[in-house]
Amino acid sequence: MSASQIPPAAAAPGEDEPTLLVKIFGKDRPGITAGLFDTLAAYAVDVVDIEQVVTRGRITLCVLVTTPFPDQGTTGSSEGDLRATVHSWAESLNLQAEIISGRGDNRPRGVGRSHVTVLGHPLTAESTAAIAAAITATGGNIDRIFRLAKYPVTAVEFAVSGAETEALRTVLAPEAAKLRVDVAVVAAGLQRRAQRLVVMDVDSTLIQDEVIELFAAHAGCEAEVAEVTAAAMRGELDFEQSLHARVELLRGLDASVVDLVRKEVRLTPGARTLVRTLKRLGYQVGVVSGGFTQVTDALQEELGLDFASANTLEIVDGKLTGRVTGAIVDRAGKARLLRQFAHEAGVPLVQTVAIGDGANDLDMLNTAGLGVAFNAKPVVREAAHTAVNVPFLDTVLYLLGITREEVEAADTHVE
């Protein structure tokens, strides 16, 4: 049925048409919603809007309905009768009722709609107040708030209208850093629910380790390699030059160490949950790494990743030569690979998510529709769209509007 074919009685009320807001409060139990609508049905009113929230066993049920007219009633004949009947029904269930007269539907939401996700560990009243005030300062209105997760962090989402997404990001990013909470701002719309591509850095993102340092420990040059790695991640050294310098320190190492390093790699807490949940939702998932295919290939197989690209250690006669082969995966290379993966996946860049922690991830983070700095260096946190500063990789799911309950429900599903 097209919009033009909707019967007049089912259309939204005009601005001047009288309506009633019926609010019910009290201890939740089965049958309250059905009971209220059974009561309202006697007055042949039309339902304009409904909101229901249950918090710690207490229900708040709001229903906006058209005001009954004398010739519409079946057992009652007026607004006064409806009010008396609803109050009587509520009292019989030890509930409170409030009925407010007004005109028309809810006021239209402002131009510009965004989802603002806030992660706290814990989430304090002080930080929540500051975030809400910052939203108001941009001209935004909070239309709805709901909780996405209560552990391992508290995650809540604000549905905001009346402010542009970029303006919200600009205002909320410094506020979040000051409050030590994580805030992500994404535009509302169908794109948020569309199939996506998520691409992650590997070292210190998907895994807890820096792979080259694991190799260096076996070569006895861990300190030297770690020093160069730290400088490169801070953006103080050219990545390609630092890569060659570090790999050269591994020259002569027996190739059998590759298997040892693979066993030493530790996934970041929540990594399996993140990938598993994304895959179940139909997302495609990939990794790009300044590390080595000798490790990323194994991770791709273990986790069922759709894409993977990294540098390759050259091995000749069973020994590491101290060189890498092929094109270097550096800062620019990661962004290029994100575009390549998106093209192969058939996903527009605006629907891609990139996750990383180092300066060499910045181009990739800024190329993606949503760039997430994960426990990142300060220069990366300041440049990315949003930052996550808790040690659980699956908290990225909340930034995509996925609740903890949905994750757990998926985990109970038998494949």
From TrEMBL:
<dbReference type="InterPro" id="IPR002912">
    <property type="entry name" value="ACT_dom"/>
</dbReference>
<dbReference type="InterPro" id="IPR023214">
    <property type="entry name" value="HAD_sf"/>
</dbReference>
<dbReference type="GO" id="GO:0006564">
    <property type="term" value="P:L-serine biosynthetic process"/>
</dbReference>
<keyword id="KW-0718">Serine biosynthesis</keyword>
<dbReference type="InterPro" id="IPR050582">
    <property type="entry name" value="HAD-like_SerB"/>
</dbReference>
<keyword id="KW-0378">Hydrolase</keyword>
<keyword id="KW-0479">Metal-binding</keyword>
<dbReference type="Pfam" id="PF21086">
    <property type="entry name" value="ACT_PSP_2"/>
</dbReference>
<dbReference type="InterPro" id="IPR045865">
    <property type="entry name" value="ACT-like_dom_sf"/>
</dbReference>
<keyword id="KW-0028">Amino-acid biosynthesis</keyword>
<dbReference type="GO" id="GO:0000287">
    <property type="term" value="F:magnesium ion binding"/>
</dbReference>
<dbReference type="GO" id="GO:0036424">
    <property type="term" value="F:L-phosphoserine phosphatase activity"/>
</dbReference>
<keyword id="KW-0460">Magnesium</keyword>
<dbReference type="Pfam" id="PF13740">
    <property type="entry name" value="ACT_6"/>
</dbReference>
<protein>
    <recommendedName>
        <fullName>Phosphoserine phosphatase</fullName>
        <ecNumber>3.1.3.3</ecNumber>
    </recommendedName>
</protein>
<comment type="pathway">
    <text>Amino-acid biosynthesis; L-serine biosynthesis; L-serine from 3-phospho-D-glycerate: step 3/3.</text>
</comment>
<dbReference type="InterPro" id="IPR004469">
    <property type="entry name" value="PSP"/>
</dbReference>
<comment type="similarity">
    <text>Belongs to the HAD-like hydrolase superfamily. SerB family.</text>
</comment>
<dbReference type="GO" id="GO:0005737">
    <property type="term" value="C:cytoplasm"/>
</dbReference>
<dbReference type="Pfam" id="PF12710">
    <property type="entry name" value="HAD"/>
</dbReference>
<dbReference type="InterPro" id="IPR049148">
    <property type="entry name" value="PSP_ACT"/>
</dbReference>
<dbReference type="InterPro" id="IPR036412">
    <property type="entry name" value="HAD-like_sf"/>
</dbReference>
